[in-house]
Design brief:
By secondary structure, the protein is α+β, with helices and mostly antiparallel strands. It contains 10 helices and 7 strands.
């Protein structure tokens, strides 16, 4: 097995099954079908990692943005109760259109409750820790950006999720392994024993994942650049420069340490590959990505046949 073969096999582990991807899209698109006909809806936008193609296995939630017409909701967008009002309005319409008991479009949502920015809609048993959810976020379009509610502060804030979708699409168009490599980096983050949001890795990948080399070399370079960036005290922020830090509670000291460990192991893997020691290279990548990364194939021991028996010159007769 070559290093590239090992990465191909690991990609299959990281990628969600196509059946699960199709089901997630269908559940997300159900919200578009239900909300699109409403007279106060301007647009329904798929969002999140599924829309960007960077989702890893398993898929447990998807995102959709419900863009309402500004003139139909003149009180929205102002500080105060309107943030919660928008979330309540969205929740009521989810129940009306998609509620499991009496939904007029479909009977799929068992429970809908709003969070800080969106209404979390449970399409599976809410008590199941792996229940599939759709996060439906109300928004207004202003100045080429989206204005979204923030219930905790009773404010509305600007966001531009479409910017991230476009940037990822451009990177993937330049290098068709970009989205798959982002999934690997998210997998790595999920394997750490502290919380690293997937979006943190995706934003770092936009900055530091090269698009002009092999997948192993690109990921090795990512860990080099990202580790020095974080070690230098830089914070991972919204690439559209609107929403500030991606994860304000991230333990950056621990994050820098884990990136540095991955950087050092990746350097050893690349050097082993240069030295034509494929098994050592694969082992070093396994140190980074864990037990789900393929193990090196052990060569069968070489069996040396016994030498031929000596021929003795024995007198005849």
């Amino acid at each position: 097995m070559s290093v590239n073969d090992a990465f191909k096999a690991f990609q299959d582990v990281v990628n969600a099954d196509i059946t699960a991807v199709r089901e997630a899209r269908a559940r997300r698109d159900l919200f578009k079908e239900a909300f699109d006909p409403l007279p106060d809806i301007e647009d329904v936008i798929p969002s999140g990692s599924l829309a960007r193609g960077t989702q890893k296995d398993p898929i447990r939630d998807v995102d959709v943005i419900l863009v309402f017409n500004d003139h139909d909701h003149p009180d929205w967008g102002k500080p105060g109760a309107s943030a919660k009002d928008a979330l309540d309005y969205t929740r009521e319409h989810v129940h009306e259109l998609l509620g499991a008991t009496n939904g007029t479009h479909a009977q799929e949502v068992r429970l809908a409750r709003w969070r800080n920015h969106a209404v979390k809609c449970f399409l599976d048993d809410p008590d199941d820790p792996d229940a599939f959810t759709v996060d439906a976020m109300p928004a207004l379009r202003r100045d080429g950006k989206l204005l979204i509610p923030q219930a905790a502060s009773e404010e509305w804030i600007y966001a531009n999720p479409e910017y991230l979708i476009t940037e990822v699409a451009n990177k993937h168009a330049a290098w068709n392994k970009f989205a798959g490599s982002v999934r690997m980096l998210k997998w790595w983050a999920a394997e750490q024993n502290f919380k690293i949001k997937s979006l943190v890795m995706e934003v770092l990948a936009l900055q530091f994942l090269p698009t002009d080399s092999s997948q192993p070399a690109a990921i090795a370079q990512f860990f080099v650049s990202a580790s020095y960036y974080v070690e230098g005290g830089s914070e991972v922020i919204d690439p559209a420069q609107l929403c500030g830090p991606i994860q304000s509670d991230l333990d950056y000291e621990k994050f820098a340490d884990r990136l540095a460990r991955a950087r050092d192991s990746a350097a050893k893997a690349i050097q082993a590959q240069v030295n034509n020691d494929t098994n050592a290279a694969i082992s070093h990548w396994g140190t980074i990505f864990g037990d789900d990364f393929p193990r090196p194939v052990q060569s069968a021991p070489v069996i040396v046949p016994p030498p031929p028996r000596p021929v003795k010159d024995t007198p005849q007769g």
